Amino acid sequence: MIKLMMFISTILVTALIRQGNIQSQTEVDLDSYQANVWLLSPPCQPYTRQGLQKHSADARAFSFLNILELMPRMSKPPDMLLVENVVGFETSDTHAKMVEVLANSGLVTQEFILSPLQFGVPYSRPRYFCLAKRKPLSFQYQLFNNQLLLSPSPLFGNNEKTVIGENSQSQENWDKLIDSCQPIENFLEFTSSSDQVNTETGPFANAEVSGNDQETSETFVEGDEFDFGAIDQFVVPLSLIERWGSAMDIVYPDSKRCCCFTKSYYRYVKGTGSLLATIQPKNKGKTSSLKEQCLRYFTPREVANLHSFPKDFQFPKHISLRQRYAMLGNSLSVAVVAPLLQYMFAEPS
Questions:
Q1: Where does the signal peptide begin and end (predicted)?
Q2: pLDDT of amino acid 161
């Protein structure tokens, strides 16, 4: 799905165009929105490290490529764009096509690879972002035009080329980045000792594990009687710990980093996001018995907190647990996108 969020004066209009329909759009259709700002989040599957990396040859890339083909033919093209995707997009042929089209259309770009970790949030979610402005509009710091930056420095009024990024190979930079983050406990909704989970009597104590993979029982994902306020509902089954414990990423309330949550979190335990140890052992990590650490999943509200969603954000009650995790896994970090938008809309001093 391509999401176009368009600013018209002070009114924010959101148009959701299904991928299957956007390929039939024409330049006249796009002009009809009369939007001067586009926020684009094309499908990321063609560019993920775990995928086939077909780039522009992947059918899921066609919708975005169609937009790029239409832009030069529009009579009212956008004045500003923000494009978001996974790390890896910046080396794709789709990216090369995008940069070519934007440059030929009179737009100047500044590109970033940024993570919430660089904004004090203990959440590892590096993403690629491209900001573009049509001349005579310009960025505050034009020395970064047509460059890819690994630092958010320009967003905070700093024009130095200091690079402290999550992808930096320097252990010193990495340690500095992690130390600057808040602890995970600041983002939890269940924190008191009375909230400790019980792996022996909780509803997942006897959950079955699929014979082919690490998928949990669908009963606990789609059930209509799921109680979002009961912490025991989020206990990791002992059967999963026994089978997949070595593949789990375990974090603690005082940790300052957790892994990226994907749309398959809670359904799978391998590579979908961190698990929280509610009882901290003397020796952290897998040298201590994971069963004794009372592991649980992060709740949807906690994942939303790590995405820096506002406190008053709520899902409609009819949205299932599985759907909540799926939507959060496809979401953006407010802590990262908000400064990017502020920087894009700011005028040179």
A1: 1-15
A2: 61
% of the chain with per-residue pLDDT over 90: 55
| 223 exposure class (CB count in 10 Å sphere: 0-12, 13-18, 19+) | middle
CA distance 159 to 247: 41
Q: What's 102's domain CATH number?
A: 3.40.50.150
Residue 83 contacts residue 37 (beta carbons within 8 Å): no
3-state secondary structure 15-31: EEECHHHHCCCCHHHHH
**Residue 287 maps to a domain:** no
Mean pLDDT of the chain, nearest integer: 82
Band (272; pLDDT cuts 50, 70, 90): very high
pLDDT > 80? residue 299 = yes
44 belongs to the catalytic site = yes
155 assigned to some structural domain: yes
The answer to whether residue 95 is domain-embedded is yes
Of residues 296, 261, 299, the one with CA closest to residue 277:
296
Q: 3-state class of 171 per DSSP?
A: helix
Q: Is residue 257 part of a domain?
A: no
pTM: 0.84
Residues in the chain: 349
**Considering 44, 130, 181, 258, which one is annotated as catalytic?**
44
The CA distance from 133 to 340, in Å, is 13
The parent domain of residue 104 ranges over 3-170+333-345
**DSSP one-letter code for 258:** B
Give me the mean pLDDT over the 160-175 stretch. Answer: 64
